[in-house]
Amino acid sequence: MNRKGRGGRMGHGPPKGQRGSAPVRVVTRYAVVEELASLGATVHTCSRNEAQLNECLHEWKMKGFRVTGSICDAVSRTQREELMSTVSYMFNGKLNILINNVGTSTSKPTLVYTAEDFSFLISTNLESAYHMCQLAYPLLKASEAGSIVFISSVAGVVATSTGGSIYSAAKGAINQLAKNLACEWAKDNIRSNSVAPWFIKTPLAETYLSNEKLSEAVNCQTPLGRAGEPKEVSSLVAFLCLPAASYMSDCLR
């Protein structure tokens, strides 16, 4: 599977105001940015795809949203450091929200994975989020009201027939990281939560959902009988960043 799922965003200032009524694209990272921006947050996002990023930034500007962006391959340690340096400068050394939404998957039998597969999938799905938290910590602490939200997966909670063992292991580690940081950084007024959705209609999931038999199996295992929409994830992510969730930390949703 390709790496279209990679991207991230940071937000400054507690979201406020009313939710916008504009339609949301079927890309989770876009939906999260739009949700936070429509609630009044100033958002800085990143993407590997410059053309796509510029197109999105133009759309958000037309809607009156305060969104900026950087070109960044979140798998690169150097580029992550450059990104956070930019964020620190733009937000005067303070950050209220960090959303870790970098992820990709290559589904193979465990015995077929190579050392290169393991390194790439762990670096993309786990190391990038871990390092971003380290880099963002002083900014989140300085805000005196920091919130970290990790976008995980149900594959990190229960065994599934899709996603692959490395992806599942990485997402399981993300859930545990969220728990550890919730305890370790609580003294600094930094909350940490994880959102672990089932199948959501994104490009990353379309490879599976385009298979009719697999799509039927997914629907049968879902109480609502369908895959989720990006908006249904972004609304929860935004809530976890709101003052209304100020007593919620160490939560897996």
Provide an overview of this structure.
Keywords: NADP, Oxidoreductase. The chain has one domain (8-252): NAD(P)-binding Rossmann-like Domain (Rossmann fold), CATH 3.40.50.720. Helix content is 45%, strand content 13%. It contains eight helices and seven strands; from the N terminus they run βαβαβαβαβαβαααβ. It has helices at residues 28-38, 50-62, 77-90, 115-143, 165-184, 203-209, 212-220, 230-241, and strands at residues 8-12, 42-47, 67-71, 97-100, 146-151, 190-195, 251-252. It has a seven-stranded mixed β-sheet, sandwiched between helices. Helix 1 packs across helix 8 and helix 4 runs parallel beside helix 5. The protein is globular. The relative contact order is 0.16. The model is unreliable at 1-8 and 14-27 (pLDDT under 50).
Question: What is the gist of this entry?
Answer:
The chain is an alpha/beta fold and 253 residues long. 45% of the residues lie in helices and 13% in strands.
Core attributes:
7 strands; 8 helices
Determine the fraction of residues in helical runs and give it as a percent range: 40-55%
Q: CATH homologous superfamily, by name? A: NAD(P)-binding Rossmann-like Domain
Main β-sheet description: 7 strands, mixed
Order of helices and strands: EHEHEHEHEHEHHHE
| Count of helical stretches | 8
Strand line-up across the major sheet: 3-2-1-4-5-6-7
